[in-house]
Amino acid sequence: MYIVKLKETIEAARGARPLDLMLKGGSVVNIVTGEVEKKDILIYRDRIVGVVDGSESKGYSAKEVIDVSGMYLTPGFIESHVHIESSMVTPSEFARGVLPRGTTTVIADPHEIANVMGTEGILFMAKDAAKTPMDIYFSLPSCVPATEMETSGARLTSKELESLIDEPWVIGLGEVMNFPGVINGEEELLKKIKLAKEAGKAVDGHAPLVSGRDLTAYLAAGIGSDHESSRYEEGKEKLEKGMFLMIREGSHAKNLEDLLPLINEKNFQSATFVADDIDPNDIINRGHIDYFLKKAVSLGLDPTIAVRMVTLSPASYFGLSEIGILAPSKRADIIVLENLKDFNVKMVFKNGRLVADEKGAIFEREEQHYDTASTMNVSLVGVESIRVPWEEGEARVIKIAENQIITDEIHLKLKAEDGFAVSDIERDILKVAVFERHRGTGNIGLGFVNGFGLKEGAIASSIGHDSHNIISVGVADDDIYLAVRRIVELKGGQVIVKGGRVVSELQLEVAGLMSHLPLIEVDKRIEKNLEESKNVGCAIDTPFMMLSFLPLPVIPKLKITDKGLFDVTEFKIVPLYL
């Protein structure tokens, strides 16, 4: 069958067989030379069989001819590093959001769902991704759990990863966050790296501010990329040492402006733009790779270099030889753009088929069905379980700052009421509780936080990096407990409680991380949550993002997990009172 199809493809390329599609009169970005040339693109089945001058295309017949005169044609854009779970929708729905933006291939790290469900979660992502025309590859999470300082829902050893590494949708090993483990030769971690290397697949890095000999040792393990650079000199060293530099411009971490001056015509092949984390509102209103290109060009980058950075550069790094370039035998993943300044997408072709236009995706949305009841294994024994006995003297309080996931530790006397420590809205000291939700241990980490500004009620979420236990911040214990209980009933979500009732909620029934709703509906509910958060006095613009990073025990300084307050610098659980 392959030989028959190949013969037919060759015949179509010769003009001896009718084409399925001809894109006529457009300006084609030549990814190899960087030139923009007026060409016609010839397509048979899912392949490009020619990129020719208009005079030459007259010798071909086609079942369909689309006039793209005055427009620009590029290969489909490639997203090299994203956690789809951050969009709060499933992979198939994520595709419906970003395909109309020109993204035809995605490299996703399912780190979040893996922390909740292990290999079952990874397999769910792969199965759901197969419902969409977009190519979604997955890198296997390398650090599940991230630390032992919180209770996760799963543990992925090299043995579990070995069962998946040869799957065609697995593209490599996900970001290796355990930098100390690498340079100290931790055997289990090195087994995971070896597994990917022997399979001929990429090993992605995660090395914020790592430099000098430490970076050299990290790279010596075979790690190839990094998306955590935030400073010019940091990115420069990583490029010089041979790393594939993924310049991040996500919803929360934005590094493009600081790192773009590094890029020139000599090194652009070793860099790309990535989202890492992207929320629904940004996908809908800002865009995806198309936005990164627009911003880079507005800052002075040559548009043909920008395009090559999100096409051939990542295709070469990941060994995806059939995409990233418009040439005979390559997949017909083609973007039709209004211009190379705004990067407004007019049409998207995937494997030779029109899948999106200016109005959005042009393929059916499959019904979503998935039972995730097992991800809410929470022991709820009553509001008394979150009472905190008051003690004389100062307590450790987590201090947050807007748009920062790094926290500080401050020491304050807590407000007392009937022998218990309670929230103090006058000083903006609020109770925070983390409920373990994977194993029914009954673990509840309790503490206090400064900076949220709530005057009443509570907010809660089942998204809490990296193990995604349930976290709630609030004024009254009853409201905190109600918010957590409602999340359990929803099988996951984000909830706001005011005056003893739930006033707004977003259900995240897929592992407590994602919704089965369409992207636009999820965005509407997020906006309603944000509106209601203001109504309970919240002083920050992104309360749920801030909430989700409070349990992350690898980012300084004082955090809270289901096991209690955690001093990241000392790397140990610490008591509430000094």
Name some characteristics of this structure.
single chain; alpha/beta; Urease, subunit C, domain 1; TIM Barrel; eight-stranded mixed sheet; 31 strands; elongated; Metal_Hydrolase; adenine deaminase activity; hydrolase; manganese
Task: Write structural notes for this entry.
Residues 404-572 form the Adenine deaminase C-terminal domain. The protein is α/β, with parallel strands linked by helices. It has 3 domains: 2-70, Urease, subunit C, domain 1 (Roll); 76-324, Alpha-Beta Barrel (TIM Barrel), CATH 3.20.20.140; 373-574, no CATH class. Helices cover 27% and strands 27% of the residues.
SSE blueprint:
Elements: H1 2-14, E1 21-29, E2 36-44, E3 47-52, H2 54-57, E4 65-67, E5 72-75, E6 77-82, H3 91-98, E7 103-108, H4 111-117, H5 119-129, E8 135-140, H6 158-162, E9 170-176, H7 179-183, H8 187-198, E10 202-205, H9 212-220, E11 225-226, H10 232-240, E12 244-248, H11 256-259, E13 271-274, H12 280-285, H13 289-298, H14 303-309, H15 312-318, E14 334-337, E15 345-350, E16 353-357, E17 360-361, E18 388-389, E19 394-399, E20 408-413, E21 415-417, E22 420-422, E23 429-435, E24 444-450, E25 458-461, E26 470-474, H16 477-490, E27 493-498, E28 501-507, H17 519-535, H18 543-549, E29 558-561, E30 564-567, E31 572-574
Parallel strand pairs: 1-4, 1-5, 6-7, 7-8, 8-9, 9-10, 11-12, 12-13, 19-24
Antiparallel strand pairs: 1-2, 2-3, 5-14, 14-15, 15-16, 16-17, 18-22, 19-20, 21-22, 23-24, 23-26, 25-26, 25-27, 27-28, 29-30, 30-31
